[in-house]
């Protein structure tokens, strides 16, 4: 569905919200952020994928394409349901360390209190959970059993479980495991119910405030996931479940070895044979959960980089044709005007451009990529077209201020001159904060562009440096933990953002 109205939004993941319990949640602080967006006359809140994560905490390597991340369950809402006492809330509050989530502490603190809430379920809640289970029977039983078994075997990689009957999903072994672990399965069903009930309430609140939520679908899923375990025939695996080829991207300007993601690749021919039913279920669920959905690594539908699983870098991969327009024709049969954004960044070619054109979906541009050289490249704002979603940067990029520091002097001077920035004293561009003059010049240039939807990370709204970036691709540690403070959000210059939206007609509230 093409974008037809000018609007703006802010990118911030749920985990980055401030609060009292060690991580951002779906509770009060999330609604406060919705209120802040509404005050700025923004129309969109973009988040990262909401699925449960592995030990590296990457939202793009989830243990399920359908389940929610239970770390985001709000304890105060559980208390409102009568499952926790006020004293128990107080005892579970943790200090809010500046700008980061302590995942180790979080795991240690959340599990006991979630189990306490589970033990106090009322008959009414149990009835609601049964209804939730019935409505989600296409994925929930496999996910709850998979999660239970990963804990029982202390192993997330299902191919390494000691019980090979369960590895290969023999019916008798599955029945026995379900019977043996019935209480643990019920516990995980409860957590998913709590997550989705709280998420639904938050989305409803956002929509009533005029805020639409942009979700995110990673194109690939992790080997260590309920999806690959329960649908192994849909992936390029050997008889033991080990990937034959894995996903990645080839070497480029930013990564001389390429990026080796390690996700198992799809058997697209097998998927096509049943009308891409697993993918259709996935897209249906996403369009229900969000107002718009960004599909990550859209180019993988045109052609994907296939790397032999034995390789340690992505250098020796090769391009393999993806399902192309055949896949999207099926999507459009099911959803005639889907709210989908195509993340078409990375290696560009004619086939990718043609696929994007044929689908009519809006693509993406990143302003931080615009000034790497002085060529008239596609990321320069004067080259944007209306049916685009454009950003200063995304979760994978440095912050705007951090990028300015990392540019060469030539790149930085070019960027600042392009954005109409004038140094009133030497090195003023280095000044950060919500009134950062250099960041504001970039943001203004983005807002002036022809792109109908512009989005900036919360770090750029606040003028933060590279110590607050969300992720650095190619590194395994120190990512995904960035967190805002209440003081940081209260410092946002609401009036400046509102004026910007009204000046450049990115709001319907122009007076």
TrEMBL record:
Superkingdom of source: Bacteria
Enzyme class: transferase
Matches recorded under Pfam families: Glyco_hydro_77
UniProt entry keywords in alphabetical sequence: Carbohydrate metabolism, Glycosyltransferase, Transferase
GO molecular function terms listed in the Swiss-Prot or TrEMBL record: 4-alpha-glucanotransferase activity
Catalytic activity: Transfers a segment of a (1->4)-alpha-D-glucan to a new position in an acceptor, which may be glucose or a (1->4)-alpha-D-glucan
Name of the protein in question: 4-alpha-glucanotransferase
